[in-house]
Amino acid sequence: MEKFIQVVTTTERKEDAEKIARTLVEEKLAGCVQIIGPLASIYRWEGSVEHGEEWLCSIKTSHKLYSAVETSIKKLHPYDVPEIIALPIVAGSVEYLRWLGGQIGK
């Protein structure tokens, strides 16, 4: 069975999250992207502890498309160093994973 992953990235503006999501789905790099937020983020940047609101993109795709997804996010993302993390999907309903596989990479 094809290996699927969930890629996570955050953006400061909802519009940026929507642009990333729309592009990934239109280019068949992702079968589905949920946008969650706003959420609070606390992080260290250039020596200071920062606090801000962000929007989380939860991107479902295949492991073999990760490099293309990362490249696309970096091209569209306004951050100098965007969070781009991939997590394995270790299990899922057969029907959903079949649907997901049919939405991407073609």
Radius of gyration: 14 Å
In the CATH hierarchy, the third-tier topology is known as Alpha-Beta Plaits
Sheet with most strands: strand arrangement:
2-3-1-4
DSSP strand (E) fraction?
35-45%
Count of structural domains: 1
Q: Please count the helical segments.
A: 3
Overall helicity: 25-40%
Major β-sheet profile: 4 strands, antiparallel
Structural class: alpha+beta
Using the coordinates above, name the CATH class.
Answer: Alpha Beta
Give a verbal description of the structure:
There is one protein chain. By secondary structure, this protein is an alpha+beta fold. It has a single domain, classed as Alpha-Beta Plaits (2-Layer Sandwich). 32% of the residues lie in helices and 39% in strands. The protein has 3 helices and 4 strands. It has a 4-stranded antiparallel beta sheet with strand order 2-3-1-4. Strand 2 and strand 3 form a beta hairpin. Helix 1 runs antiparallel to helix 2. It is elongated. The two termini are 17 Å apart. The mean pLDDT is 96.
